[in-house]
Design brief:
It is a single chain. The chain has 13 helices and 8 strands. By secondary structure, the protein is α/β, with parallel strands linked by helices. The termini are far apart.
Length: 364
Amino acid sequence: MVLSRLRKILFLGFILGFTVCYYLPYFKKIKPIDRLTVCRKKIIDIAFLKVHKCGSTTVSNIIQRFGMRNDLNFVLPDKPYDGHFWFLGSLDNFDWQSIIPLPKGRVYNILSVDTIYNHTMYRTLIPNNPFILGIVRDPVERYISMDFYEGRGIPLVEKYKDDPYIYAHIKGESDTDEVSAIRGMAYDFGLPVVQRNVEASIRSLVERIDVEFHFVMVMEYFDESLVLLKRKLCWQTRDVLYIKRNQNPQKKQYALSPEHRQNLRNIQKADVNIYEHFKRKLFKEITSLGTEGLEEVHNFKNLLRIIGDFCAVKKPFNLTITATAWNEAFDIDQSECALMLLNEFELVKKLQDGQRQIFHGNKS
């Protein structure tokens, strides 16, 4: 009897040991996702390319508010307020006198105003190995947004009267002179206009962006991108809160047939290549987060709704957000709401005023 029991125990032990040894390699491949990423130190040096009509104003607002909370230094144009005071533009012929100076011994931490991408100058302006960030958007939607923003969309609506297919005039020819195609995402990423349809130049640009940018967000997956960005920067949830900015209420009264949509893609070869590459790359990162990552995104969206409602009613008290598995506990007050609701120009002006005071105060 004892011998029989011993044999059964040995047999069960063998089965258990075999099972563990067999499946252990598979268990090792499964990497659990930490719900609250533990980071040693927040990244504070950031160079953000504001790709036009890609949700970049909202991202800038997030970065600028983070900089204000952490007493960081911004690269800001030194221009009077009667012109494009928020705009640095091309950095090819950069002059240090074109930006607001810093007191001696301090360096710039954040670049988040309008520029054309220039890797050398980004690293020169933000000297402490900056995190280089960009954002892209579906080229067709970006094209239409740019058209309406710059005043070309409404005349088309008026011209075609009751016909919603206002982009039927575009025939899908790559050498079109359509402004929103010429000044597309590739232009902001530094591709010369004359090369925007050159296959080799487009491939080279995508490869260069892939190497030089630490992360490229995708506007259609904005919240997913922010959750990933938060992890990469070692930031907290409150650091990536936002209320959408710079949305155009006039963008309406149009429709696209599948043919028209394809025509708009055909005249934006470079933008399509950039977008598809970084959309695929983002999908891989989102997938790597697993189910818990998707739950974090869901939690983040809920927080945004709660905070949006709080900021809308403008009550003179704090909103307390309790800690969860995906976010720390924090408070939001109306002063934070006010900053989230500031438009791009108001916030840049506020930053410029503050940085001028710092420089002149330290100078005296």
